[in-house]
Amino acid sequence: YESILKGQDLDDGVWEKLFLIKVNVPVLERHFAELSSNDLISLKGSINVLFKKCVQGLKEEHCIKSLNILLTLSTLVRCVWRRDLGEGFRAVDVLVGFDQAERVISQLMEEIHRILLSNKISQLKYYALAFLKILCSVSDNVSQNTMVEYLMLHSMWFSLSKILVNPSLRSTLGTHSLSLLSILLNYRKNEYCNPYTVKLSATEDELLLNGFGEILLNYITRYNSAVISMKQTSQGSYTEYITSWFWTSEDTNGTPPLDLSLLLALYEVVHLNRPFTSILTQTMTAAQIEGTEGGGEERHSNLLSSFLTFSSLVFADVRTNHTAALLCFNILLCITEDNYANAFMHDENQVFPVFLYRTKLRHRKDAKAETPPTSLAYTLLDLMCEFLMTNLTKSFPTELYSKCYRVIHRVRCYEKKG
User: Fold this and answer.
1) For residue 355, what are the contacts with CB-CB under 8 A and spacing of at least 6?
2) What is the DSSP code (8-state) at residue 11?
3) How many CB atoms lie within 10 A of CB 82?
4) Which residues lie closer than 8 Å to 398 by C-beta, 6 or more apart?
5) Are strands 297-302 and 283-289 parallel, antiparallel or unpaired?
6) H or E element at residue 285
7) CB-based contact 164:212 (threshold 8 Å)
8) Which residues on adjacent β-strands are paired with residue 285?
9) Measured CA distances, 265 to 23, 310, 337, 416 (Å)
10) What angle do CA 403, 405, 411 make, to 5 degrees?
11) Residue pLDDT tens, the chain, 418 long
12) Residue ranges of the alpha helices (H) in 85-205?
């Protein structure tokens, strides 16, 4: 790699052995960091050759080589895109060569598509998905990412959906597939007909939609259990009130990070896919919700009731989770616009005990966090009232309050019609 970054040519024998050796990522990144932008542009020919050799190496279907090549490509893309090269097309030119970018990236996507559909080890598929996520997230604004423009020419919907419908692959790769899909769904979706948006809105495949629901339910349930357990073992209310004055976003106290890409995926599927509403309301697994009075107990749950618990935890710390709170309200708005979901939430025969986290306030006694078994419409309105009461801060979250009132308005409109 030092020879390549010095502009030296390598013979075929070196190229054959190069990808059998695992790339030393820190060393390669350091070499790139030492190059100025002008030096990087002058090495365009050598970097183009390295990129093309990587694509050719993937065609050999050698597992170790493929792993090392994907790791090399991921490092290469990150290092080039970190440099301030102006427009994204210049970074594509340095990486691949603008005159041959469409052909080379097309070959690359075909190989990655083959890897994801093959019977290769899961680790290789993980590296392939990680590389695609790096390609899609090198720019802060996905709609201005030049690499995604090339990726959109070669749909990955089929290979990603195959992962989501396969139970064994879904357990190891489902989260990464859904995160990647959420990025692709938002590429210029308001400017032209995004093919992933069309596919998602049109799909009626129950296995695929169940796969979506299972991944989201598992993530939300794990997050709920971890955060509730942490909050139940926290300090007393007065001490917690005092320490909150000095609390910063870095002091997470072990709180698991919010995966906004999965929240975004949930919003997209609820917003675009009408049949998914039935997945929201059906009982899929037995979820373990800890932290309630009397300890954790196993019970049946569904995605909608678990999401209400999740939302209560997010709303309890709007200062840190503002973006997540916006997504939660947008999801609730989509749900309350759907007649089937409203009918289910107001069905008196469908009752669920839902844990709602309630912020400790000095002027009220500690209330039970878990609502008694009741309709989800009652729980939803209870959650909205809790948000209205506990977020009257000096820096007033006007946008969140507006969305909260819109959720309440939609529920009351349905009840008036009913």
Assistant:
1) 224, 228, 289, 291, 292, 309, 312, 369, 370, 371
2) -
3) 13
4) none
5) antiparallel
6) strand 283-289
7) yes
8) 301
9) 33, 15, 18, 32
10) 105
11) 777 766 677 776 677 777 788 888 888 888 888 888 888 888 888 888 888 888 988 888 788 888 999 998 999 888 888 776 666 678 888 888 888 888 999 999 999 999 999 887 788 999 999 999 999 988 888 888 888 888 888 889 999 999 999 998 998 999 999 999 999 999 988 888 889 999 999 999 999 999 999 999 999 999 999 988 887 776 454 445 444 444 444 444 556 778 999 999 999 999 999 999 989 988 765 433 333 333 444 455 789 999 999 999 999 889 889 999 999 999 999 999 999 999 999 988 888 888 898 887 776 666 555 667 788 999 999 999 999 998 888 888 899 999 999 999 999 999 998 7
12) 88-95, 101-117, 122-137, 146-151, 157-165, 167-185, 195-202
The answer to whether 186 and 253 have CB atoms below 8 angstroms apart is: no
Q: What is the value of pTM for the model shown?
A: 0.86
Which of these, 72, 70, 68, 2, lies nearest to 31 by C-alpha position? Answer: 2
